[in-house]
Amino acid sequence: MTALDTDFVRAQFPAFAEPSLAGLAFFENAGGSYACAPVIDRLTRFYRQRKVQPYAPYAPSTLGGAEMDEARARMAAMLGVATEEVSFGPSTTANTYVLAQAFLRGLEPGAAIVVTNQDHEANSGPWRRLAEEGVEVREWQIDPETGHLDPAALAPLLADGRVRLVCFPHCSNVVAEINPVARIVAMAHEAGAFACVDGVSYAPHGVPDVGALGADIYLFSAYKVYGPHQGIMVIRREVGFKLPNQGHYFNGDALYKRFTPAGPDHAQIAACAGIADYFDALHAHHFAPEPDAARRGAAVHDLIRAHEAALLQPLLDHLAARNDLRLIGPRDATRRAPTVAVALDRPAEPVAAALAEHGIGCGAGDFYAVRPLTAMGVDLGRGVLRLSFVHYTTAEEVSRVIRALDAVL
Predict the structure, then answer these.
(1) Residues 18 and 159 in one domain
(2) How many independent structural domains does the chain possess?
(3) For the Aminotransferase class V domain, which residue ranges apply (predicted)?
(4) Rg value, the chain, Cα
C-alpha cells in the first residue's frame, strides 16, 4: 500500500512554515483545520482581482463567477454527485436550520423525524426544535457505556411507517465511531424516509463518495476540510425539489439556490476549489493519473485513513491502559476517526492548559456534544479533554502528546 508522504503534505500548508506556530503540535483539528495553500491563494486572488459582483459581462466579474462555478463543479465531482446538488452556506449549523424550516413546511400531518443523541448540537438542535411546531421527533439513542449507535435500535423507530426523515452523524465529534452510513440510509429508504447525514466530523479524514453512500442530504464544514469558513451541503435532486423553496422565489428552479436564502459569500465559495486542488495534488503525488474525480477522491480517502489509523492506534492503546481516565469511543483505530475524547478524574480545562505549556494545542469542554456526553454519564462540569488530529499530523507529534500526557497527568 502507498504510504502518505507527510513531508509533501506539510509543504502544502503555510502554517507549518509560519514562525509564530513553530513548535506547536496542533491537536484541535476537530474544531477547525489549517488551511491549505491552494485555498489561501484562491481566496487572496479573489479579494485582489475579482472582488466585484460576479457573473456580469466584464472581465473580473466574469472570472469571479467562473471561479465560483468551478468550485461547485469540482467539489460535486469529488463527492460523486451532480453539480447542481452542491450548495454553499455560511455554516453547517445555518444550512441545517434552513433545511429544517423546509421540512417543517414539507412534512404531511402526522409525519415524524428521527434524530440521535450522538450528534453535535448543530445537526440535532434545528431538527429537535420542530417538535415546538407539532412535528413528532423520535430519538435514536446511543449505548450509554460505549456511545455506540446501533442500527438495530433504529428499526423500531421506523416500524410504523410515519418517519419521513432520519438525521444522524457520519461520526460524532466526541465518540468518533464511524457509523455504517450506507446501511442506515438503506434502512431509512426502505421505511419511506429520507436520510440526512452530518459529515462535519468525518469529512476532514477523507471526503466521502456521497453518491455511493446513498445519502439524500450530506453536510460538512469546509473550514474543517482545509478550506474557508463555509458550510457545504449536498442535497440530492429528488428531495431538493420535493421541499419548498427557501430562497428567492425567482431562483426556485435552481437546486443549488433553493436552500440559500441569503446572498452567497462569493470569495469563500470560489476558494473552495482550492480544496479540490489540494486533494488532486495529493493524488498526483501518490498515484498514477486517474481521470475520474470520484475515484481520485476515493484513493486519497483511503490513503488518509490508513495514515491516520496507524498514528491513532498507539495513542488509543496508551489511553486505554491508564486508570485515571475514561476513553470514549472504540479502542480500534480502524473503527473511528482520530478525534479522541477522554473523561478525566479532574476538570479537563486545566489539563489542556498544562498541555499547552508542553507545546500541545488541544481543547477541553463539551464541544456542543452535551447530549452524548450526558447520555454517557460524563460530568459536564469537568468536561472532556479532546485530542484531534488529521493526516498532516506526524508520528513524532503523537509521541509528543503521549509524553506530555504522562508528564501532566
Answers:
(1) no
(2) 2
(3) 26-242, 304-401
(4) 21
Q: Is pTM beyond 0.85 here?
A: yes
Instruction: Tell me which residue of 4, 56, 2 sits closest to 392, measured CA to CA.
Output: 4
Given a contact cutoff of 8 angstroms between Cβ atoms, the answer to whether 236 and 98 are in contact is no
> Which tens digit of pLDDT belongs to each residue from 284-333?
999 999 999 999 999 999 999 999 999 999 999 999 999 999 999 999 99
Strands 231-235 and 217-221: antiparallel
Cα–Cα distance for residue pair 406/403, rounded to 1 Å:
5
Domain that holds residue 204: 43-276
Residues 308 and 336 in one domain: yes
C-alpha grid cell, residue 188: 431509512
Angle at the Cα of 67 (from 74 to 53), degrees rounded to 5?
Answer: 140
Q: From 276, 305, 331, give the residue that closes a domain.
A: 276
Instruction: Answer with the one of 233, 249, 276 that is the final residue of a domain.
Output: 276
